[in-house]
Design goal:
The structure holds two protein chains of two kinds.
Chain A lengths: L5 E10 L2 E11 L4 E5 L6 H9 L6 E6 L2 E2 L10 E4 L11 H11 L4 H14 L15 H13 L5 E5 L7 H18 L2 E6 L2 H7 L2 E6 L2 E6 L1 H6 L4 H6 L4 E9 L2 E4 L2 E4 L10 E6 L5 E3 L6 E10 L4 E7 L4 E6 L8 E5 L6 E4 L4 H21 L1
Parallel strand pairs in A: 3-8, 3-9, 6-7, 7-8
Antiparallel strand pairs in A: 1-2, 1-4, 4-5, 9-10, 11-12, 11-14, 12-13, 14-20, 15-19, 16-17, 16-19, 17-18
Chain B lengths: L1 H4 L5 H21 L11 H8 L1 H33 L4 H9 L6 H12 L4 H8 L11 H26 L2 H9 L4 H29 L3 H5 L8 H10 L4 H22 L11
Pfam families (chain A): ABC_tran, TOBE_2
Family (chain A): Belongs to the ABC transporter superfamily. Spermidine/putrescine importer (TC 3.A.1.11.1) family.
EC number (chain A): 7.6.2.11
């Protein structure tokens, strides 16, 4: 196993009586794209500021390649930041901005010019060196902010919601570019965002945060398919979350029926929540259905119809279907056992991971049988 | 309809502007072309620019205004920077600005008391064994009191410039490896320079025409253009010459405004 580049150990941050971060543990491996994902005010930017050195942890340690970083001032850390509003210096040209950090190091002029040119080329703005910052568009400023950070050749690049000021189309383009850049440079990116689509699209690994705690970490697929609790399931993607009861291993009851599922290790009779993603639901005739619902309304989303429906117990359902339905129609819905994901109330990530380990192999067999 | 009527709101200030700003300036310019016998002449201007006394006086005014501005700046920037870092900074700022609410003459008389032969300053000098000195009616005391009076007018725009400075710039500078001093000299100071320029305008221009202080504190050793104007209007009754000096002062003010204005106006940031 490689040495982690950044570790946060039991980091707590308090402002007076206000606790921003609660005992956060985080490990970042070299060369990986990480995302801190959470709603505004969840503490994700505070983590970034603590790693960058703009803010101190009230308790706990920050390690950089195994060395304690807490007392190292921001200007002596081999970590650079791309700021939310870019923070490009308005009194300098593009090239002067990018060269700023290198000039401070008293590097020879020729070498600075060479590295600045290379960084500008990397962000596809090679000819923009002489321009004023105010003459750049938002997307160009964004690229210059990235160039200014990567020209320093940091081991870790921190990005604080860098795409939030861009329009939707440009944002998608930049997602590809950032991902591409990270893979070319091979350095660790720690990206902060409240946009779950962005996080799913770009990351190797996501940390989902809420109210100063990391709720779940894992690959985008893990987090999407197996959210740990109601908050994560609701925050990431669209989801139907239903109240139910565990009947035994791989057996769960909800919506007035019993179903086969792919979860185990939960005591029989325990109340649970069941997550079904709208795209995993298929419309069918009431006869072939696992559940019947009444269509309330539907929205055309271009590549699919977003259908809102209600079952006979009054639960709301959201279904994504390529074919439209009739309002008021009684339809059946089907799903496969592996489309169901069972969540226990108040289960912590460590317990969740341990439980998954106990039945993962048997689960694969069950899926094969069906 | 409402759009056409909005100019009505400008009437009170428009009248004020016309009666007390535009008319007096026009009168001064008009007067400056007449001699003592009310004959049209360019003599006042030729006299002004040929007289060593007037030119020296002009130079003196500019020099003292420069010194006052320099000392005010040297004191105000660090003060504004320090105040800006305090917890209750708006309260402290208010306390710094408070003296401007008191009439300048009252403050001048207060300093006469402090600097006089038996004043507080000399009592202190006697106490530490130096003995009483001539403090009042020296150039140094004139600059000291003028600087004291001007400081709040310099602190305020600098403080506001610091307040407007996005803290992300400071973080970005540190992030790129700048020390505290480098961050200040390469980022904070250049970005707050507009505040300094505004402060220079607010201090240098009034300092050019200070006249009561030159007499009360400086003992008329320094004759500034302000003093000269006062003398011409009230003592020698040569209104033409007084107006000429007034015109010179107005032009000097315009020059200072142009010099301290924004060299390259910033265009709107395209987004």
């Amino acid at each position: 196993m490689t040495q982690p580049i950044i570790e946060l150990k039991h980091v707590t941050k308090r402002y007076g009586t206000n606790t921003i971060l609660k005992n956060v543990d985080l490990t970042l491996e070299p060369g990986t794209f990480y995302t801190l994902l959470g709603p505004s005010g969840c503490g994700k930017t505070t983590i970034l500021r603590i790693i960058a050195g703009f803010s101190d942890a009230t308790e706990g340690d920050v390690l950089f390649a195994g060395k304690r970083l807490n007392k190292v001032p921001a200007n002596q850390r081999n970590i650079n930041t791309v700021f939310q509003e870019y923070a490009l210096f308005p009194h300098m040209t593009v090239a002067e901005n990018v060269a700023f950090g290198l000039t401070l190091k008293k590097m020879p002029k020729a070498e600075i010019a060479e590295r600045v040119a290379k960084a500008l080329k990397l962000v596809q703005l090679a000819d923009y060196g002489d321009r004023d910052i105010s003459a750049l568009s938002g997307g160009q400023q964004q690229r210059i902010a990235i160039a200014r950070a990567i020209v320093m050749q940091p081991k870790v690049l921190l990005l604080d919601e860098p795409l939030s000021a861009l329009d939707a189309k440009l944002r998608r383009e930049m997602q590809y570019e950032l991902r591409d850049l990270q893979q070319r440079l091979g350095i660790t990116f720690l990206f902060v965002t409240h946009d779950q689509e962005e996080a799913l699209a770009m990351s190797d690994e996501i940390f989902v945060m809420n109210q100063g705690e990391v709720l779940q970490s894992g690959t985008p697929e893990d987090i999407y398919d197996e959210p740990i609790n109601h908050f994560v399931a609701d925050f990431i993607g669209e989801s139907n979350i239903l109240q139910g009861k565990m009947l035994g291993d791989f057996q769960v009851a909800f919506g007035g029926h019993e179903f086969e599922c792919s979860d185990a290790g939960i005591p029989a009779g325990e109340p649970v929540e069941i997550v079904i993603r709208p795209e995993d639901l298929n419309l069918t005739t009431p006869e072939e259905a696992k559940l019947t619902v009444t269509i309330d309304t539907q929205l055309f989303r271009g590549n699919y119809y977003e259908i809102a429906a209600t079952d006979n117990l009054g639960n709301d359902w959201q279904i994504h279907s390529v074919n439209p339905a009739e309002d008021g129609e009684n339809v059946g819905i089907t799903f496969r056992p592996q489309d169901l994901h069972v969540m226990r109330f108040g289960e912590k990530e460590a317990e969740f991971d341990a439980r998954l380990e106990t039945y993962e192999e048997t689960e694969d067999e069950t899926i094969d049988e069906t | 309809m409402t759009k056409r009527r909005t100019w009505l709101y400008f009437i009170p200030y428009g009248l004020w502007l016309a009666l007390f700003v535009i008319a007096p300036v026009a009168l001064i310019i008009y007067q400056s072309f007449f001699d003592l016998g009310h004959h049209f002449t360019l003599g006042n201007y030729s006299a002004y620019f040929q007289s060593a006394t007037y030119l020296k006086m002009t130079l003196n005014s500019v020099w003292y205004a420069f010194l006052i501005t320099l000392f005010t700046g040297l004191i105000s920037y660090p003060t504004a920077y320090f105040l800006h870092g305090l917890k209750h900074r708006q309260l402290w700022l208010l306390l710094v600005i408070l003296p401007t609410w008191i009439n300048i003459l009252l403050k001048a008389y207060a300093f006469i008391g402090i600097f006089s032969q038996a004043g507080l300053a000399n009592q202190f000098l006697s106490f530490i064994g130096i003995g009483p000195q001539q403090i009042l009616f020296t150039n140094a005391s004139f600059i000291f009191v003028a600087t004291y009076i001007q400081i709040p007018f310099m602190i305020l725009p600098i403080f506001n410039a610091l307040d407007d400075l996005n803290p992300a710039f400071i973080n970005a500078s540190q992030d790129l490896g700048a020390s505290g001093w480098q961050t200040f000299s390469k980022v904070v100071f250049p970005l707050t320079l507009p505040g300094v320029k505004a402060g220079v305008q607010a201090v240098f221009i009034p300092s050019l025409s200070l006249f009561m202080l030159t007499r009360l504190i400086g003992g008329n050793k320094v004759i500034t253009l302000g003093t000269a104007i006062e003398e011409h209007f009230l003592t020698t009754m040569n209104w033409g010459m007084g107006s000429t000096i007034g015109v010179v002062l107005i032009i000097a003010m315009v020059v200072v405004m142009l010099l301290t204005g924004d060299q390259k106006p910033k265009g709107g940031t395209p987004r």
